[in-house]
User: What shape does this take?
Amino acid sequence: MLKERNNLTYNSWDFLGIKLGEMFIYIDRNKHTNNKAATSIIGHIIIEVENNYNKRISLKKYATQLNISYDYFRHKFKEITGESPQEFITNKRLEAALNMLSSTTLSCSEIAENCGFSNSAQFSKMFKEKYNI
Assistant: This one.
């Protein structure tokens, strides 16, 4: 494009306009391809979080594995799930706890530990906030 610009001849401006249009199309296509890839990769992370909600989860580790910033990771995660990564994990833990409370004889402390909460006080506070009980 620079060569064409420096040696203006007949239809040079038309040629430059076409090349510029091609460049914008290429950029736009690349943007959508990268967006699909990020969505797919975050989809795999969502499945991993759903399967490991009861373990200690490092969200920054996921961002590092994807070679993206933690803020971008959180943004894409929320765009896909409607929840921040931490809200998503907490809700998975609370759903599992609700299920355990109604289907097992485990104590609240045991359920809190099995669901990945730091302690039973944290579990009780979050459970009450979500379910009002």
Summary: The two ends are 67 Å apart (CA to CA).
